[in-house]
UniProtKB/TrEMBL annotation:
Domain FAD-binding PCMH-type: 1-182
InterPro entries: FAD-bd_PCMH, FAD-bd_PCMH-like_sf, FAD-bd_PCMH_sub2, FAD-linked_Oxase-like_C, Oxid_FAD_bind_N
Source organism superkingdom: Bacteria
Database matches in PROSITE patterns: FAD_PCMH
Protein name: FAD-binding protein
Stored SUPFAM superfamilies: FAD-binding/transporter-associated domain-like, FAD-linked oxidases, C-terminal domain
Species: Hansschlegelia quercus
Keywords (A to Z) from UniProt: FAD, Flavoprotein
Keyword Flavoprotein set for record: yes
Record keyword Protease present: no
Record GO terms (molecular function): catalytic activity; FAD binding
Length: 393
């Protein structure tokens, strides 16, 4: 158990970081603590928590923009946006079901992990909606990047660097997002009984239609249930009736076709977003493999009987894979299969010992590793922020 420091403001964050620099003592960065199982285990003696940096700073419905402090619960921001008929369109992934954690996912954690859900297939990831940040670097300097509009930048695009940086270049204190209007309603077209190759091909075909599919996932059959190929449509109810019928005719997919009502559709995509309901035994290790959508079934076929469970999101471009635990979490065959499909793999759940011994994130080429190290050292020259979280120090 590490000591937890929870500053009330940016000055407190700056002071904590400067003390860590002076002592050459790395600190772990944490928001709501819901994603502590992601990345390599922390080796820091102290944890800097942003949980007290809370509050929505700006909510401009007419501008489609919202700003909040890093420790603000994602649910609070989503509720405030919903009251104005808007949302964070990228559908933030909630890690609690996967890790069995409690607490509340925060805006800072969302940005640090680029947490994006099924709607990414149409609207992009969290980083694509992120337009401004304030953060405190490993030098103890507060910087601001971006603002309330999308625009070109020169030099480092710090907004995009912050998304997915896992706290290694700075401690986020504020974030600003572009939002989108809420859909009036939704439905999901479900085709049952398709094999992986046929199901993923149907997803890819659907994404090529003009019907604005906002979710495309294939759930292989398990526990006596048939495989389901799921396509979500969102818009005005009158539009959905036409689009769902036209999409079904266009696909001409074999198998029984059903339409879910809005409530059932939301429940299904919440489960797909958070992954855990489809991955079986909670003791299994879990990988996320990103490939070109049409190559997803190739990765699964290459792994064969090693798989305990799997499913496809993002039209087949994201494969969630569960495997029985082992010393190396199956890293060699998973990464070999991903490489053959020209993709990459991330170990997203395993015990501390395994995550300390195995490359959690995709190993980088020597040239890319040098570039990454140079960028990180620009912001955190002493290496005090989440040291070793992404790669061994």
């Amino acid at each position: 158990m590490t000591d937890v420091i929870a500053p009330l403001d940016e000055l407190g964050v700056e002071t904590t970081i400067l003390e860590a620099v002076a002592d050459n003592a790395p600190i772990a960065i944490q928001g709501g603590g819901t994603r502590v199982g992601l990345g390599r285990p922390s080796q820091a003696a102290k944890t800097l928590s942003t949980k007290r940096l809370t509050g929505i700073i700006l909510l401009e419905p007419s501008e489609l923009v919202v700003s909040a402090r890093a420790g603000t619960p994602v649910a609070e921001v989503e509720a405030a946006l919903a009251e104005k008929g808007q949302r964070l369109a990228f559908e933030p992934f909630d890690a609690r079901p996967l890790y069995g954690t409690t607490g509340e996912p925060t805006i800072g954690g969302l940005v640090a992990t680029n947490a994006s859900g099924p709607r990414r297939v149409l609207v992009g990831a969290a980083r694509d909606a992120l337009i401004g940040v304030r953060m405190i670097t490993g030098r103890g300097e507060t910087i601001r990047s971006g603002g309330r509009v999308m625009k070109n930048v020169t030099g480092y695009d710090i907004v995009k660097l912050a998304a997915g940086s896992h706290g290694t270049i700075g401690v986020l204190t504020e974030a600003t997002f572009k939002t989108l209007p809420l859909a009036e309603t939704e439905t999901t077209l479900v085709v049952e009984g398709l094999a992986d190759e046929v199901g993923v091909a149907a997803l890819c075909a659907a994404m090529g239609t003009p019907f604005e599919v906002t979710g495309a996932a294939h759930l292989p059959g398990r526990d006596g249930q048939p495989a389901r190929t799921c396509l979500r449509l969102e818009n005005f109810e009158s539009h959905l009736r036409y689009r769902a019928g036209a999409l079904a005719k266009t696909l001409q997919a074999p198998g029984a076709v059903t339409l879910l009502d809005a409530e059932a559709s939301r429940a299904l995509w919440r489960d797909i977003r958070d992954a855990a309901p489809f991955l079986g035994d909670t003791g299994n290790v879990v990988w996320r493999v990103s490939v070109a959508p049409s190559r997803g079934p190739d990765v699964v076929a290459a792994l064969g009987d090693r798989l305990a469970a799997h499913f496809y999101d993002w039209s087949g471009g994201l494969i969630w894979i569960a495997m029985a635990p082992s010393d190396d979490a199956g890293a060699a065959p998973v990464r070999a299969a991903a490489a053959e499909a020209r993709g990459h793999a991330t170990l997203v759940r395993a015990d501390d010992a395994t995550r300390a011994a195995v490359d959690v994130f995709q190993p980088e080429s020597l040239a890319l590793a040098r570039l990454s190290r140079a960028v990180t050292e620009t912001f955190d020259p002493v290496g005090v922020l989440n040291a070793g979280r992404m790669h061994a120090s």
